[in-house]
Amino acid sequence: MFASAREIENTAVAQLALLIEEFGEMFTARIANNETSVLDAIEEDWKKLREETEQVYKTMIDELLGAIDERSMIIKKKQNGANRG
To answer: How far is CA 22 from the centre of its chain?
Structure first.
């Protein structure tokens, strides 16, 4: 059985919150440790966050689209077309 749209969205939001929290922790740790290549490391962390965030959104959209009952939509469209003409 497919998850509801709300469940899919809640899962994505939880994943995004975790990614942002991890990024913030890494950022704080890098600044606190005065790493010599702080900016390079932060840029890499930022790139990773963007990629992972994009993947979360892609997964969410794929799951939402997968939950659509296309067959019932096609039947409804055909019925609406028949009613018009």
So the answer is: 16
**Cα 56 from chain centroid?**
3
Q: Which residues touch 38 (CB under 8 Å, ≥6 apart)?
A: 30, 31
Residues 40/73, Cβ–Cβ less than 8 Å? no
Structural domain of residue 72, as residue ranges? Answer: 5-84
pTM of the model: 0.65
Residue position matching structure tokens 């497919």? 2
CA dist 49 and 24 (Å) reads 10
- Give start and end residues of each alpha helix (H) in the chain: 5-32, 38-66, 70-84
How many Cβ atoms sit within 10 Å of the Cβ of residue 56? Answer: 17
Does pLDDT of 30 surpass 50? Answer: yes
As a whole number of angstroms, the distance between CA 11 and CA 19 comes to 12
Number of domains in the chain: 1
